[in-house]
Amino acid sequence: MLDFAVGFIGSFLVLYIIVHSASMHGSLSMDHDLHGIQKNHAYAVPRIGGIGIACAAVVTSVAQPIWSTGSNAPNLILLLCAVPAFTSGVAEDLTKRVSPRVRLLCALASAFAACITLQAVLTRIDLPYLDKWMRFTPFAVAFTVFGVSGFTNAINIIDGFNGLASVVAMLIFASIGYVAQDVGDHLVLSVALTMLGAISGFVPWNFPAPSVFLGDGGAYLTGFIAAELMVLLVVRHPGVSAWYPIAVSIYPTFETLFSIYRRKVIRGRPAGAPDGLHLHTLIYRRVVRKNPDSRNLRQCTRRNSMTSVYLWALSLISIVPSTFFSSSPVVLAGVIVTFVIIYLWFYSSIVTFRIPNWIMPVRTTSVVVEHPRH
Q1: In the chain, pLDDT over 90 holds for what percent of residues?
Q2: pLDDT of 37-95, one tens digit each?
Q3: Cα–Cα distance between 11 and 58 in angstroms, integer?
Q4: 115 within 8 A of 138, measured Cβ to Cβ
């Protein structure tokens, strides 16, 4: 548990410095565009929270030999592999000029580096016909690289509200850690605990009232590390079903795939074009926005945070059973199908304004949320 504790303390302290020095770097780090199509925040704060998480992960991995007899080399190698994806995200956070294509290429580079250095290459997906193709190394490498980079971007896709991406990532890392403990994988367990602690140190600064955002760098880092840990579990342990990574991460994964389908097929627009039709955006605009004083700054922050709670609950529908049935392809397939049905029903209900009353939030007196002072 020292991995968790050191990760938490390191992240919390670095983010404390970032938040309270915002006046010095705010011209670069703050997101002042509050009216973009995917923007749902009431005021500008630094969007470099990923730096705190990265620093905590590095410090914990370097210091690990103090309390652990195992080698920390694989942990550090994994973090080195994450550098291209993380750096491209931080560059976008600071300059707002790094194209989606460049960031995708960097995510692909990170995934390929992990394939080479950690042998993190999927050789099975537990489908007999396709498993024959997975024995062909170039195909297996390509499949793994695109899968990892896809999930790396998926975490960034759902990063739009206070605590949404970070807490969903925490739930996924908790599941990974549980499965790793169950199969006796020290490497995966230690990295999962490190990331769980580092993200836990970030959440108090982001939820319910944000003083810092995760940013592209933080989203790419957490998405990449989670994806690689899931790949390693499948590669190193035949008892872990290849369906486990899909089932436990189905919320961000399906959100990404559905967004691509909605934009490209239904609307005839580029797959990477921004829009305001993500499930989390619709929940914010049509479900929690019905509370009183909807134009009030405090209510805006409260609605933003409440939106995340809906998606946390939705993600648990797949994460909980996936964790306890990680070796059962049949159960995991059922989890995936069940989640997709619930997601599409929920999305359709919101789009057609047929939202059940039991989904609507209870109207309560709002809690005062002050603008963070630096």
Answers
A1: 74
A2: 555 555 778 999 999 999 999 999 999 999 988 889 999 999 999 999 999 999 999 99
A3: 10
A4: no
Q: What is the pLDDT of residues 223-240, one digit of tens each?
A: 999 999 999 999 999 999
Query: Cβ distance 46 to 22 under 8 Å?
Result: yes
Q: Is the pLDDT confidence value at 198 over 60?
A: yes
Six-digit token pair at 275?
């829009």
Contacts of 10 (CB under 8 A, 6+ apart): 52, 55, 56, 59, 60, 198, 201
Which residue type does 81 have?
C
Answer left, alpha or beta for residue 129, where phi above 0 means left and psi between -120 and 50 means alpha.
alpha
Phi, psi of 101 (to 5 degrees): -65, -45
Q: Residue 60 corresponds to which amino acid?
A: T
Question: Which pLDDT value is given to residue 373?
Answer: 47
**Token couple for 323:** 């964790």
DSSP type of residue 240: S
Token output for 74: 């694989």
Residue whose pair of structure tokens reads 């670069």 in the numeric block? 28
- The CA distance from 287 to 95, in Å, is 34
Return the pLDDT at 367. Answer: 42
The alpha carbons of the chain give a radius of gyration, in whole angstroms, of 20
Token pair listed for 342: 């619930």
**Lowest mean pLDDT segment, chosen from 58-62, 142-146, 259-263:** 259-263
The CA-atom distances, in angstroms, between 257 and each of 153, 246, 269, 285, 359 are 11, 12, 14, 22, 25
Q: Which two tokens stand for residue 365?
A: 């007196």
What percent of the residues of the chain are helix, what percent strand, and what percent coil, each to the nearest 5? 70, 0, 30
8 A C-beta contact, residue 9 and residue 201: yes
- Asked whether residue 290 carries a pLDDT value surpassing 60, the answer given is no
**3-class DSSP state of 32:** coil
Question: According to the model, what pLDDT value does residue 264 have?
Answer: 81
- Measure the CA angle with vertex 95, ends 369 and 308; round to 5°: 35
